[in-house]
Amino acid sequence: MRRKLAAGNWKMNGTGESLAEVDRLLRALPDPCCEVLICPPATLLHRMAARLEGATVALGGQTCHAATCGAHTGDISAAMLADAGASHVILGHSERRAEHGESDLDIRAMTEAAWDAGLAAIVCVGETDAEREAVNTLDIVGGQMASSIPDAVTGENLIVAYEPVWAIGTGRTPSLDEIGEVHDFIRARLERRFGPGVGRSVRILYGGSMKPGNAAEIAAVSNVDGGLIGGASLTADDFAGIIRALSAGA
Ligand code: PEP
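# phosphoenolpyruvate complex -> structure
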């Protein structure tokens, strides 16, 4: 049984003042609750870890370098994220792919580094609008999975996030049938490559304009094990609304 996960990606948003939003979120969490993860900017990780002491909300980074340490100005290693209190890291987000030129092979190396540091990797895959028009979405997603996911997958160290790039921050979402088709495909690929036991235990998140109003119907689609949520994770009210939808039956 895969437990649903609500993962909030704050991106480059948030300062110390935003920690109050986390206090509000903690007060609004339902019981029972799905698994909840917040990935704030790295500058907030340590303070947020202190704020979340004793709470069941986990913390994650938004990327990491493939090396453990060294001359990489501005970068952060997976071990540093773990040291600051993170248990997860988002890798290969489309904004990192587009703005920082991260390739599938870079993401594979980062995933291995995350695992070496004991972090679970949330590997993002998904097609752009142009790719959707020109190529089969499943070919794009299958290629990204084959090249960016290393071999040593377990049910705990990997989470796959399907994020159609054209749905991120746009208010547009694929139809429920389209989401189901891609998630079923990802599940089949995981089972084929890693065997049915591991393949069935890896969680697959949907990301792209998930809101309190659409979370329940998306969460009910086959092989949707939760959401990777950007904009709507920034306010306690919206994130709690999504968490409530994902917690139904938790
Ligand atoms: C994201 O960037 O991972 C994301 C899903 O963003 P949003 O929820 O704002 O579309």
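# post-check
The chain has one domain: 5-12+19-248.
Residues 9, 163, 168-169, 207-210, 228-232 surround phosphoenolpyruvate (CB under 6 Å).
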